[in-house]
Design goal:
single chain; about 160 residues; alpha/beta; three-stranded parallel β-sheet; two-stranded parallel ribbon; 5 helices
Length: about 160
């Protein structure tokens, strides 16, 4: 019997002001740190250089699957708003997700229809729908729900925040 590993899918629906939005970020950080350190342990347990892919190529040297899937839906689309200001005493979830995505090569897909209905748009959708400008934060992408469905078809563990 072969054992398959499931990649978690974080379905984030909470508004940035809700504690669950912060909890999703904390979960993602802890999970990615744990997976990255287990990969380091596995890579340092006597495997020859030909047994392990080049670890400089990606933080995910073991497999082509992402370490973690994330999908922003509903009110969490506000996290992708590049014009969202956050006071110094609060965590800037937009910047924190951007940093995490850069560190672990994560994609940050946001449901396009929920984003547009909350005033978050990229350049293409602004032109298509004759909106005055784009405000999608760097690193985030607007996608259709089919992207979520495709990830859910794979072997994943769905966790909603």
């Amino acid at each position: 019997m072969t054992m398959t590993t499931t990649t978690p899918l974080l379905l984030i629906t909470a508004d940035p002001s809700h504690p669950l939005a912060n909890l999703a970020l904390r979960y993602a950080r802890a999970y990615l740190k744990s997976v990255a350190s287990s990969h380091e342990i596995n890579n340092n347990t006597g495997a020859s250089s030909t047994d392990v892919k080049d670890t400089n190529a990606s933080d995910n040297p073991i497999t082509e699957k992402p370490l973690l899937n994330v999908f922003f839906y509903g009110d969490s689309a506000h996290i992708a708003n590049g014009l969202r200001w956050q006071s110094a005493d609060q965590i800037d979830l937009t910047k924190e997700w951007q940093n995490l995505a850069e560190q672990y090569q994560l994609s940050l897909p946001v449901c396009v229809s929920t984003a547009l209905s909350r005033g978050v748009s990229d350049t293409d959708n602004s032109a298509r729908h004759q909106l005055d400008g784009a405000n999608l934060a760097t690193g985030f992408t607007l996608v259709g729900l089919s992207e979520l469905a495709m990830v859910m078809q794979e072997d994943c563990r769905l966790i909603q925040f």
